[in-house]
C-alpha cells in the first residue's frame, strides 16, 4: 500500500498533481477532512480492499479541519499505517502572479492582500513541510515539468534527493532574476549579436552555440563552471535545500547565456540531477 498525503501552498499545483497521480493509478480523494483520514486509512488497509495506492489532497480550504491534521497523522503512525507526505512549494512572487492571472482570491486573503495571505499560509504549513518526504517547488515548472517530476517520484521510483535545479538564462539589461541563488555573468564571451546570420537566432540554435564556444576563454570558463556547480550541489543537498536557482546572464539574454544554460542543463541531467531550464529573455529585444 502506498498512502500519499498531497498538501502545500494554495496555488502551488495540488490539483494538477492529483490529476497526474490519478493517471498513475492512485485512488484520489481531494479535500478530505483530516479527522476522517485515519478511518479512511483503516478501510483501505483492510485485507479485502483492492486499493493499493491512495492519494489524499489536503489544503488550507479545510480551514478549521486543517488544524486537526497533525493529530490525524499521529493517529496514523500509532496505528501502524505507513504514509508519506508530498509538499508542493512555490515562491511568493510566483504565487502572487498566478493569483492575479486567474483573478482568484487566496483562501486566507479575504481581509488582507494576496501576499499577506500567502505568507500567513506558509507559516501555518511550516511544520508540515519539515516532516514531508518529498518537497516539490513548482516556481519554474510548467504543467509538463510537474507531470515529469511526479512521475519520477511515484512511477520511476524516486530520486536520491529532493533538490530541484532551475537553470535560468537572462539579460542584464532586463534585470537579475529575484529568486537567483547563484548568478554567473558570461558577457565576456564572443557575442553572436554582431554576426548578421546569427543575430536573430538564440542559444537554442546549434550554430549560435558553436560560435559562442569557439573560443578558448569560453571553453575554459565552461569547464570551471561545471567544476564549481558539481562542488556546490552536494553541499546544498547536505544543507537540505530543495530548490536551487542558477541564473546565467549576458547583455540581452538571447545568445551567450542561453548557450551556457543549454549546455549545463544537459550536463547536469546526464549526472542524474533533476533540472529545469527556463530562458527568461530570449524572445525579448
What would you note in describing this structure?
This protein is an alpha/beta fold. It folds into 2 domains: 2-154, P-loop containing nucleotide triphosphate hydrolases (Rossmann fold, 3-Layer(aba) Sandwich); 164-279, no CATH class. The chain is built from 9 helices and 9 strands. Strands 2-3-1-4-5 form a 5-stranded parallel sheet, with helices on both faces. This is GlmZ(SRNA)-inactivating NTPase. Residues 1-154 form the RapZ-like N-terminal domain. It comes from Alkalithermobacter paradoxus.
The major sheet is characterized as: 5 strands, parallel
Low-confidence stretches: none
Mean pLDDT: 87
What's the architecture of the largest domain in CATH terms?
3-Layer(aba) Sandwich
Helix and strand sequence = EHEHEHEHHEHEEHHEHE
Q: Give the CA-CA distance, first to last residue.
A: 53 Å
- What is the count of β-strands? 9
Please state roughly what percent of the residues sit in beta strands, choosing from under 5%, 5-15%, 15-25%, 25-35%, 35-45% or over 45%: 15-25%
Total helical segments: 9
Helix content: 40-55%
Q: How would the global form be characterised?
A: elongated
Q: What's the level 1 CATH class of the largest domain?
A: Alpha Beta
Strands of the widest sheet, in order across it, are 2-3-1-4-5
The number of domains is: 2
CATH superfamily of the largest domain, please?
Answer: P-loop containing nucleotide triphosphate hydrolases
- CATH T-level fold name of the largest domain: Rossmann fold
Domain RapZ C-terminal: 164-282
Domain RapZ-like N-terminal: 1-154
Binding site for GTP: 59-62
Organism: Alkalithermobacter paradoxus
Amino acid at each position: 500500500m502506498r498512502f500519499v498525503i498531497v498538501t502545500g501552498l494554495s496555488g502551488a499545483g495540488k490539483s494538477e498533481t492529483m490529476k497526474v497521480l490519478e493517471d498513475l493509478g492512485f485512488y484520489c480523494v481531494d479535500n478530505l477532512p483530516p479527522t476522517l483520514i485515519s478511518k479512511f486509512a483503516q478501510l483501505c488497509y483492510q485485507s479485502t480492499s483492492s486499493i493499493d495506492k491512495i492519494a489524499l489532497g489536503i489544503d488550507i480550504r479545510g480551514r478549521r479541519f486543517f488544524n486537526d491534521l497533525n493529530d490525524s497523522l499521529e493517529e496514523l503512525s500509532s496505528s501502524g499505517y505507513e504514509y508519506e507526505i508530498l509538499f508542493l512549494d512555490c515562491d511568493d512572487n510566483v504565487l502572487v502572479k498566478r493569483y492575479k492571472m486567474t483573478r482568484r482570491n487566496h483562501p486566507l486573503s479575504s481581509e488582507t492582500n494576496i501576499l499577506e495571505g500567502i505568507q500567513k499560509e506558509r507559516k501555518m504549513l511550516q511544520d508540515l513541510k519539515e516532516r514531508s518526504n518529498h518537497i516539490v517547488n513548482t516556481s519554474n515548472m510548467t504543467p509538463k515539468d510537474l507531470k515529469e517530476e511526479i512521475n519520477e517520484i511515484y512511477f520511476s521510483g524516486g530520486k536520491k534527493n529532493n533538490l530541484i535545479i532551475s537553470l535560468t538564462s537572462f539579460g542584464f539589461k532586463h534585470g537579475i532574476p529575484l529568486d537567483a541563488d547563484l548568478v554567473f555573468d558570461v558577457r565576456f564571451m564572443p557575442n553572436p549579436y554582431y554576426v548578421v546570420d546569427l543575430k536573430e537566432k538564440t542559444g537554442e540554435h546549434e550554430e549560435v552555440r558553436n560560435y559562442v564556444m569557439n573560443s578558448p576563454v569560453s571553453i575554459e570558463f565552461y569547464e570551471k563552471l561545471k567544476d564549481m556547480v558539481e562542488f556546490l550541489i552536494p553541499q546544498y543537498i547536505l544543507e537540505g535545500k530543495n530548490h536551487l536557482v542558477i541564473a546565467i546572464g549576458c547583455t540581452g539574454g538571447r545568445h551567450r547565456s542561453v548557450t551556457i544554460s543549454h549546455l549545463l542543463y544537459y550536463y547536469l541531467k546526464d549526472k542524474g540531477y533533476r533540472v529545469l531550464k527556463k530562458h527568461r529573455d530570449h524572445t525579448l529585444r
